[in-house]
């Protein structure tokens, strides 16, 4: 991509047992301004192949001299987070996309309730400075496991005082989501960033209590997880593309010079949607609705795979 | 050359008379004029707390909404009954208090009257039941579209005979 920005890693900091923070500074041009909740896609040229993962910007949006991102070492990492943790050193250059935002706060809300799970605290790191400037009513509820995650918990607690609530499941403190939601006043908007299990638990609690769906906002970038190898057939050309266990369908298509428009590469933005002509789909994205997933006519190739040995794509 | 112009914007709200039993912690019932049906609906809902506002005056409804919703929970549902214009204008007031559109249940309007927004002079003409309709502001003869503006609680109207003033289309009853 021609609009990528070249940045230098200015510093690296271990912010939790499995999370590293990278400070990125522009080399040629100035960095673009960004809005709270924005992310960038970082290109990681490992020896095996180029990984591209989306990471939320966690610096203050008012500071355009540098971007900060935090990368959690994923247990089932295909190489992206391992590359960031083991290969990237201070002074290295990286290519990143300009910021995009799929998780902006709803500023007309009367109150903002942020629910973070582990490294999912990162987008809220860029929300908080702006909310403080606007004197917005907000609370941060941060769920983590101190043996692995919990980045920034001490500074957040200190900075936010009674707006901060921490839950450490390695110390058996848990958040009662239903109780928390039931106490919220009218006009509260709820933002969730964390594992799918957290997003689901909050959505279910909200539905049971009768909170409107329009006040629930969530984001989870799913780094593509490996699966069984399969063949993707291109309907228009008859071309057969082999998708290995480690590659995503989008990566395999790109390796065969078939370009599919894409943005977040994490199953959130919806840019890379493809029509499926034949074959069962293993949906792993946050973008398609349950009905669309059940219909089995569309796939998000950045994270989702074939459920069988073959998929025919109408592209 | 006759340019072909077909209006494709259709945003006329759809109202459902069956009310689902959605869960909530507080229900507010607001009506322009209390009907037996609305009263029955209010009686039938079992919810931890509920209130009924029977008031056709928008300013007064606003004051009461502010008071009743001051300590309302996020799980609030508002039921609205009245003319289309009343429901949507109350809806606008509620939005400012933090109520979202999916927290409002609007019952089928009490009549088929439309408010029409004139795109030439910006006047809203009320109680329109037939099209074309004469604008109360500039007197132009307006085609009444199905393009509904929620914040105005009105349908988009434009001059139907701008090219030829003698052309007066047949009057049709609006639904």
Overview of the structural elements:
The complex is a heterodimer of chains A (315) and B (175). Chain A has 315 residues and is α/β, with parallel strands linked by helices. Helices cover 19% and strands 32% of the residues of chain A. Chain A contains 7 helices and 19 strands. In chain A, the strands form 4 sheets. In chain A, strands 1, 2, 3, 4, 5, 6 and 7 form a 7-stranded antiparallel sheet that branches. Chain A has a 5-stranded parallel sheet with strand order 10-9-8-11-12, with helices on both faces. The radius of gyration of chain A is 20 Å and the shape is globular. The model of chain A has no long low-confidence stretch (mean pLDDT 93). Chain B is 19% helix and 30% strand. Chain B folds into 2 domains: 26-106; 114-173, no CATH class. The mean pLDDT of chain B is 93. In chain B, the strands form 3 sheets. In chain B, strands 6-5-10-9-8 form a 5-stranded mixed sheet, with no helix packed on it. In chain B, strands 2-1-3-4 form a 4-stranded parallel sheet, covered by helices on one side. Chain B has helices at 36-44, 58-69, 84-96; strands at 26-31, 49-54, 76-81, 104-106, 114-118, 124-128, 130-131, 133-134, 141-149, 154-159, 172-173. At the A-B interface, loops of A face loops of B.
